[in-house]
Amino acid sequence: MSNFKSSSKEIKGLTSSKIAKKEKNDCFVRALAAATGSTYDAAHEVVETKFNRSYKKGTKNYMIRKVFKEASSDGLKVGDTKYDINVLTGSDINNTYKLYGEYIDRKKTVKSFIQDHPKGNYVVTVSKHAFAVNDGMLVDNVGEEFRPTRKVDGAYKIISPIQSSQQLTLF
Question: How many separate domains does the chain show?
Fold first, then answer.
């Protein structure tokens, strides 16, 4: 797929991080670092403290959902920067189909999620895995091939402080 970037090229400080060299099962750490533009070490610290991730163990999807839901009102600080979080629901992560006269909702595939969200930075979870989507570009681990039919379990828009502070003033 031409819309794929390796996380090793997209994450600041990944190749020089001593923590990253010893880690495994760190897809969520990499996804958060790629979506926020922060360093690997800063994302690792947040995931370890806020998301209760143990060393060399993956981050559970239910924990990602819980912490991002809490952060949707308070924000999430990664490094020195605080990000607004928008938990996507409804038609942002589901497609509606008409089947035998009934409307049913089904989880979006990775491909349809990327097509429907060409702008913005997102952390996306699928079964036992997480990756980033930055302006329509999938950012994932080396060796994690693009699988367009995987179902999206959760998606979280990461809004940078610059974007969130822009407001329309009337006077």
Answer: 1
Angstrom distance (rounded) from CA 44 to CA 78? 9
Q: How far apart, in Å, are the Cα atoms of 40 and each of 18, 19, 99, 125? A: 10, 9, 45, 18
Query: Which domain does 130 fall in, by range?
Result: 4-163
With beta carbons less than 8 A apart as the criterion, state whether 64 and 28 touch.
yes
Q: Is residue 140 part of a domain?
A: yes
What is the pTM assigned to this prediction?
A: 0.87
The sign one gets for the Cα dihedral 129, 71, 51, 35 is positive
- pLDDT tens-place string over residues 125-151: 999 999 999 999 999 887 777 788 899
What is the side-by-side order of every strand in the sheet holding 121-126? 4-6, 137-140, 129-134, 121-126, 154-159, 81-87, 76-78
Residue 169 falls inside a structural domain: no
Can you tell me which residue has the tokens 């490094």?
A: 79
